[in-house]
## 1
Amino acid sequence: MGLINSRPYHPQTNGKLERFHRSLEDEIWYYLSLDDYIEYYNTARLHFSLDIDNYETPLMAFHKKKATVETRSQNPTWMEDDIHD
């Protein structure tokens, strides 16, 4: 495995990272620390590419995948209860 450099500011080459950097630059001013921003990015900010029918945060996607079908059918609001606790 080796290091491969991509051209700077070339989203076609490194789209996800470029998009993250753009989001970081656009929104970082609202937060005092990088840790606060990362928490917001992963728990509160909707990510439109995760579930196009139901926009969700990475935390929501993680909890949804973590629960079994049986858990979700027995308690359909389990994720909302867990997030708001």
## 2
Amino acid sequence: MPVSSAVSARLRALAALRRIRHDWVCLAFAAMVVAGTVHELLPPGLLGQQTRNVLFTAVVAAYFMALLTCIVLSAIRTNDRRLALLLLAAGVLLWAIGSATLTVHKVSEIKFPAPGESFFLASYIGLAAFLLMEVSRRERPALGVWLEAAVVCGAAACLAALLAIPLSDALDSAVMAPLLLALLYPLLDFILAIVVMGQVLLGQRACGARTATLAGGFALLAVADSSFLLTIDSGTYADSPALHLAYGLSFALIVGAARRRPPEVLNRRDDRNRSRVLVVAAAVAIAALVFDPGDDPFRLAITLAAVLTLAAAGWRLVLALREARGAAEALRLSRTDELTGLPNRRAVLQDLEATPANGGPLALLLLDLDGFKEINDSLGHAVGDRVLVQVADRLRTRLGHQLDVARLGGDEFALTTRRSDPIGLTELGREVCAVLAEQIEVDGLELSISASIGIAIRSADTVSASDLLRRADVAMYEAKANRAGSQLYEPSHDNFTRARLRRGEQLRRGIREGELALWYQPQVDAATQQVIAVEALVRWQHPTEGLLTPATFLPEARRYGLMPALSLEVIRQAVADARRWIDEGLRFRVAVNCAPPELLGGPLLARLYEAMKAAELPPD
């Protein structure tokens, strides 16, 4: 109880700390907004200009300090996004330093470059790195991700440059250098917003409120940076409360979205959307390359951006072809049996499902090698594998013109053919058995392989490939039980598998409830005509079917692992009968049949010795 109370108290304290942090951040932002609003609404003559500048600088510094604190706290709480958030913090810090530099130098007239220009430009490196690193926070970004981002960014740059050409034609060449700088910032903001939307279309970022907030922050920043274009003819920087609010709100949106953990991307590999985005981006680059702006100063930038975009798109195409080749090879390997090189179970089921029911006749022959377990147990699995390889080669070379051969696993093979005549399929099954009956030489040994084959013909009521395979399996087990070689599936025999399952459960219950009985076959000395021993033969007194011989239930006992329990019950009864006969003055040996695996392993011998000791049987 004290431990659970301490844990609960700690959890409540952590929750309270999170609420305090959240409330502190909200209060800090509210205070900054109120302070900025008060500063902007103060009458011009109330405070001196120097005091107003100091107050404005303090408000801006406190605002950016609150933003950086939010980012750092989020980075501390998360491990997988820490690097991305620190890159964002670096970008915001550089932008704040650039803004502070402009404020300190009291720049009002347009200069090129202006004080703090390098800090503003460097801040975009941190912002772009944040966007690229955040989408791959759990794994190292693949080359394809970087190339896709380069294609989207390049296409956005080409589009933005094309849109800026009419504006450059309308302005005097004397303001061309400031114009280029004035266009650069909104273009960079526009490119970052396009990158966010491109990541959504490429399946790298989830579509939702967080993503919309992030893209909206960059879009609002582009609007704020575009204000410079409105005052470029006057030669002064724009300065208004609305502009300050736009800058502050844009960074608040970006940081607010970054603080929230991005949701998991559903369907990350939407190849159709990825292809559409890359094709559109490449088309924009081609259009920009074909377009001739004349002597426009943007010509070199447009050409360079278009060439780099097309180069990235071409490289991504090469990677896509390589990925497609690797995917095709992986698909081939997933449908191929590693040992024999034949198609595997997955390939058989997929091919059967892909073939429509009205696509013509189709039959499935399920082949199971008889006695293959003994080969593995006696000669080893390596020899067994070589036998399987030779069987596969023989089926493929001798019968490949009539059948499609596949290995389902173990010693089971599937043979499909475009035939539906029962007589012809039965003859084909016998031909397969005859081909396999030819001796196989492995490690100097000549082995004869026999097989049991179940044949199932696809009909209108065969609803699936697995159902067709089940029917062939039923026929195969019936062929194995009847030693018929091959057996055609009959709907009336479909209860064969169910009967085996039912028989196994009945036998389990019969062993437990004492339904087994021993019959003894005497062994007579030919010289003395005296009984010298008896052999115990097990019988099953079935409640409804009467007395059953071992041939009717021992296969199920082996199949369902009931042989140890059955053998122990036989030993118990044999020892009890032997003790009773000794007490009646009869002395002869009692023989009990046991399978070799039970003698070599398991508790059979130990239980036999314990029963003999408990019954005080003589050792002879």
## 3
Amino acid sequence: MVIDFLPGPADRFRTGHIAASQRAALIDLVELLAPDVEKARGRLENVLENASWSAFDPEDALIEALLDGVDGGCAYFPSVGADPEAIRGYLTLLPACPEELTRTWQDGDIEAWNTETDLRTYLRSLGDHCRAIGIALIGVFCGKDGLVPGFLPDGKLERFIALATTAELEVFVYGSVDR
């Protein structure tokens, strides 16, 4: 199943109340995605315990837990100025980046890179390449100005989607064809 969600409406933010099922799903997502589960779970618990603001955003909570420099479960890029070389350079440093991908990664024609459409096309192409080696290129929505991709084995993709639904997260699974 290949999914490419579009950003939701501005009223998508929730109140500071976090349902038990949403909290449990966020914790399960951290356990699914984080290379250092204990460290990421601690960061998530801290975020959830302090989530009394009026516009709780589960995406931000998960991103905060997973971002840990090159030791994290995902990477952050501003969508403006993120080019294939920068994306590739950082993603290859993530612990979940498959060795098969680093040996065969082709960025294609990056000379023509200049638009958000190019970024979407690049991510879909990279998603297809990942799927060919049994990995899904996933992302967590972080607003129109950012990009938070990471890797997940294909066998864990259905669980990722189910947990994201329960946690009320907007996520991406990059690619252009069903497998």
## 4
Amino acid sequence: MKKRRREQSFVGLISWRDIPAQVIAVEGGSREKALLPARFQHAIDRAAVVAGMTDTKAYVSEWKQQKFELSGDPKTQINELAGTIDAQYDEGLLERLVRNGGLDDGDASSCGL
């Protein structure tokens, strides 16, 4: 008899290198997600070109997920986090990340994520 692995509850921030793309919440067997505005995906695509990561394997290998504690309603929490990220990552910050090939030179870390 197989043991069932207990589902972990968390909020996850999915990023390509240091550019966020979406926020997810996993609780039990359910999953919610909030995509960030299209400007984030455009920045990711441009940063990948700057970094020379245009082949699929290299591009995919740079995706990562940070996990945070889930507290409260998952949908509310991911929407709040997505709104905070959208407000904090202005066009100037995204442009700096693009120029650095998607890597944070220290400016993005000041956003408190």
